[in-house]
Request: fold
Amino acid sequence: MQAAKTITVAILMAGVMAGCSNMTDRQRNTAIGAAGGAVLGSVLTGGDAVGTVGGAAVGGVIGNQIRK
Reply:
């Protein structure tokens, strides 16, 4: 079962990376900021959905404003 999960995650990550190939720098920074913010928000709030979404929103805004 663990191998199936690992393969599924690898396939999803490959799809995500392929989808980001034609993004502008600003779009890429926004996506990276949102992902990082979601992880940090989830960790800080113990997996609470509101913390995760809030972290993603804040991270996305910060990522969007980098090198403006």
In short: The chain has three helices and no strands. Helices lie at 2-19, 25-44, 49-65. The mean pLDDT is 83.
